[in-house]
Each structure stands twice: as structure tokens, then as C-alpha cells.
Design a protein that fits this description.
4 helices, globular, three-stranded parallel sheet
Amino acid sequence: MDKPFWEKTYQDKDVSTFSKGPTVDLEKYSYIIPNQSIILDVGCGEGRNSIFLAKQNHIVEAFDLSKAGIEKAKTIAQNLNLNINFWAQDLKDFKFAKKYNGWEIVHHLEGTFSDEHPGGIKHEHAFERIIAKKINYC
């Protein structure tokens, strides 16, 4: 079976597979995240959102199915002197060790979009983005 296109571009240090910088929605809502929040980035790819959040002094843990993506993310973070806990794992095998209750969904968006990657690879992406904020109970 052929590997997904991103496995090739994740191995190229000179290419950003899904574009540089954070996703538009994360950049838009990042102001609501309290300083030094603990962030879990699921499906982090090569780490663009994780790196953005770590630069803002958040504590970031991130995983992705792609080992090549994780290795690239680790290299980028190390080159920027950012301490991010990256690891490779399939979401279906992930167990939440921390309590994830008491959250308010601030932004939820799902859909598809057309994209073209280095080498002329055109395709459709499916995505779901959820930005949640911890509700403090007194």
C-alpha cells in the first residue's frame, strides 16, 4: 500500500506540508488561552500549532500517527529551543490520563477543502477543529 503524500513531505526539511504558522482558527482564538495553559494537540502533523502555542509560553503535548511528522516537529522545536512533548501514536489507541471535563466549546468547525502540496499533489482534506476552554468552577 502506498504511503500518504505527507509522509514524503514530512521528510523534507525545506517544505511545510500544510503551510507555515498556526491554523487560522487557532490564531483567531489564541487570545482566550490563559498563560502557561496545558495544551493537547491531537493530529499535530509536523507541529505548526504546537510550535505556535509553545512560543506563547504554553505547556504543549502533541501526537500524530506519522512518525516522520513527529520527527520533523521535534527537530523544528529543538531548533527553536522549545520544549514540546511530541510522540507518535494512533488516536484510536490514545487513553486520556487527565480529566477532561468542565469544558466550554469556543469554536467547532468541520468540513473539507481542496489543497495542493509540493510536487503538484492535489487532493481533498477532511478536517474537524475544536477549540475548548476550561471552565473554572468555584
